[in-house]
Design brief:
- By secondary structure, the chain is mainly α.
- It has eleven helices and three strands.
- The protein has helices at about 1-10, 25-55, 60-90, 95-130, 135-140, 140-165, 185-190, 195-230, 235-260, 270-295, 300-315, and strands at about 15, 95, 175.
- The longest helix has about 35 residues, at about 95-130.
- It holds the Pfam family 7tm_4.
């Protein structure tokens, strides 16, 4: 049995991504929509980055984290969408085994970093509103960089663990992935060996990540809400609720889709639903983040307007 297992292990050398839709007539429309969404997402997040760099008022810890979030959004959509757009152009839907693992690793690296960065942003709001007198010393640049480095380290560990665990599975049968990018639940369905340990690992690490970070975020905002209610200034309450409301909206979208996708066991018939969740994770969330953070933030709006004016003056 062991020699046969070793042979089966190398039987599948590439996977076929079925894409978002299987009807050829819908492919051009999907291509245009995804291309438009990709350009809007990259353009919107680059605009946020430019605004943060140009406007001195935005050189604070909150916008330092927001700038990192914009970079993550660009990376997350770039890992998945351009490859999907290339398939109808090349009339080729296959992806090598190593390429599938690479896409999975980088997607989970960036998504995990997103999770930890949102927690750091909640901690920053907690210090700014609940500990204003010591905020500058507690959230100095060194602390900001340490939080980002630790977030990268945790996200890297999570992504590498799942990628290595996936290489222990045998793929010896069908190789059609019912998705538009490589992800763990869909690859589990194709394995001809038991995926119970992998599913338990995915559920367990997702539970630890989501439970820990969500607990910290909820705890931070309970304290923030109590502090905001005590503010005498109506303008101060409005500004605090505006910045915190934007962050909470992003947190709810991110955690809602993530929990649906990874915190469940035995997902044999959930691939069609997973496609919709995948669209949220890879495209809609990164596209909405710049809008959410700019529409309710006058400082960001002013900086974006300054960037546009300067660009027009140069042309």
């Amino acid at each position: 049995m062991q020699p046969e297992a070793r042979t089966n292990r190398t039987a599948v050398t590439e996977f076929i991504l079925l894409g978002l839709v299987e009807t050829d007539n819908l492919q051009p429309m999907v291509f245009v929509l995804f291309l438009f969404a990709y350009l809007v997402t990259v353009g919107g997040n680059l605009s946020i980055l430019a605004a943060i760099l140009v406007e001195p008022k935005l050189h604070t810890s909150m916008y330092f984290f927001l700038g990192n979030l914009s970079l993550l959004d660009i990376g997350c959509i770039t890992v998945t969408v351009p490859a999907m757009l290339g398939h109808p152009l090349s009339h080729k839907r296959t992806v090598p085994y190593a390429g599938c693992l690479s896409q999975l690793f980088f997607f989970h690296l960036l998504a995990g970093m997103d999770c930890f960065l949102l927690t750091a942003m909640a901690y920053d709001r907690f210090l700014a509103i609940c500990r204003p007198l010591t905020y500058r010393t507690r959230m100095r640049q060194t602390v900001q960089r340490i939080l980002v480095v630790v977030s990268w380290a945790c996200a890297f560990t999570n992504a590498l663990t799942h990628t290595i665990a996936l290489t222990t599975l045998n793929f010896c049968g069908p190789n059609e992935v019912n998705h538009f990018y490589c992800d763990l639940p869909q690859l589990f369905q194709l394995s001809c060996s038991s995926t119970l340990l992998n599913e338990l690992l995915l559920f367990g690490m997702s539970f630890i990540m989501v439970g820990t970070t969500a607990g910290l975020i909820i705890s931070s905002y309970i304290h923030v809400a109590a502090a905001v209610v005590r503010l005498r200034s109506a303008e101060g309450r409005k500004k605090a609720f505006s910045t915190c409301g934007s962050h909470l909206t992003v947190v709810c979208l991110f955690y809602g889709t993530g929990m649906f996708n990874y915190m469940r066991l035995g997902s044999e018939e959930a691939s069609d639903k997973d496609k919709g969740v995948g669209v949220f994770n890879t495209m809609i969330n990164p596209m909405l983040n710049p809008l959410i953070y700019s529409l309710r933030n006058s400082d960001v709006q002013g900086a974006l307007w300054q960037v546009l004016v300067e660009r027009q003056s140069l042309t």
